[in-house]
Specification:
The chain has about 475 residues and is an alpha/beta fold. It folds into four domains: about 130 residues, Response regulator (Rossmann fold, 3-Layer(aba) Sandwich); about 170 residues, 3-Layer(aba) Sandwich (Rossmann fold); about 80 residues, Helicase, Ruva Protein, domain 3 (Orthogonal Bundle), CATH 1.10.8; about 70 residues, no CATH class. The protein has 20 helices and 18 strands. Strands 2-1-3-4-5 form a five-stranded parallel sheet, with helices on both faces. A five-stranded parallel sheet has the order 9-12-15-8-16. It has a two-stranded antiparallel sheet with strand order 6-7. The longest helix is centred in the N-terminal third of the chain and has 28 residues. This is ATPase AAA. Keywords: Activator, ATP-binding, DNA-binding, Nucleotide-binding, Phosphoprotein, Transcription, Transcription regulation, Two-component regulatory system. It comes from Skermanella stibiiresistens SB22. One of its GO terms (molecular function) is sequence-specific DNA binding.
Amino acid sequence: MVNAKVLLVEDTPSLARVYAEYLKKAAFTVKVVETGAAALEAIRESAPQVVLLDLQLPDMNGMEILKHVSGQQIPTAVVVITAHASVNLAVEAMRYGAYDFVVKPFTADRLLVTVRNAVERLRLAQLVDTFTDELARGKYHGFIGASFPMQAVYRIIDSAAASRATVFITGESGTGKEVCAEAIHRQSPRKDKPFVAINCGAIPKELMESEIFGHVKGSFTGAVADREGAAARADGGTLFLDEICEMELGLQTKLLRFIQTGTFQKVGGTRLEKVDLRILCATNRDPLREVEDGRFREDLYYRLHVIPVHLPPLRDREDDVLDIARQFLSDYAAEEGKGFRRFHPAVEQVLRDYHWPGNVRQLQNVIRNVVVLHDGEEVTAAMLPSPLNQHLALQPQPSHRYQPASIEEPVVAHVADAYPVSPGPRPIRPLWLVEKEAIEEAIAACDGNIPRAAAQLGISASTIYRKRMAWEAEGRA
């Protein structure tokens, strides 16, 4: 609120001076203009948080300025001030989005309370818009998915990208750790510089040092020429060390020194070289367990583990699996010249229910298998490869899953199942209490996994979060 910008549109100089002094004493930054044209120009240059708008201006009616702000959706709270008040005028001003309507003369307290409330309302509206935009963010630098767990990952990437701090990415195989590293790079100021990735588990340990730092001619058998390593190639950009826990202890010591000093020597070389790069690393193991078991240096762990990012497994990402599967289906159908457009509902159910131990990589392979071996407009259950076809055969009945057409109805149906009708009358209990008990029982049955509980209840996880917040706010938690 302090230093919020206020544009005062008032053509009476004496009143403008008085109002401006009120606002400046309260630590607002004030700009005063006397005409509508000047007001429109000031709003275009930099939208103030609040516009105090007199309607009777020498060159136009202030209502035209209000209509402009409303029509252009400028993030500004407009407070109309006038000495010629009427109900019709107030209604028209509110219809065009005015935050408040203040009648002259007014006291300093009335003005300051109105402006402070307008600033706070604008701040809250922007927070809501930001949150809504985040929830709607279904694609993000190579990621697909709008689930709550992935929104948390996107926010960490947004926050960490601008820093030089090392990011340690963890997650099961196939969850997209390299995609995450590339997202951090592409979101960072280094995005126009190189992104160099090395898989520490795919390169023989005797060649790993050369791969990172390079070598000089003749330093070992087969070194027939000088070679730049990944560190030099990533200068100015980002070096991504995937499966970092596979690195041998001797090389971990050299990597630690490199991170601390930014300098290195090529294998067989004597010249010290310096680079400016950011290091990102990833592992599908538990790094602390690797430290405890003596396979990973503790000092290197704490040097690398500055900003942790954990990628959730696909089974915990709500309905992201369907969004990802549809994207793969579209891409591979176009690539293979096939006619696939959609999944049969039974197939969508299998995709939701399957555990996906291989995560997104396994899903990718399944969809490619279907597209390569079959054709048609719709993917049917008969087209699914093993083990998904076996999983389908084991389903005794359709599971209760979230359907977009209804949110509340499946909850009521599940509550009826949870509380079967018994002979004789039962006490009637409040519906919110019955619903709350059903949701809490589902969460407990799923070991606290809210997305899984929501799927069993036939609702979305966001519905559970929203209801729990409402119960807490009402003192019913």
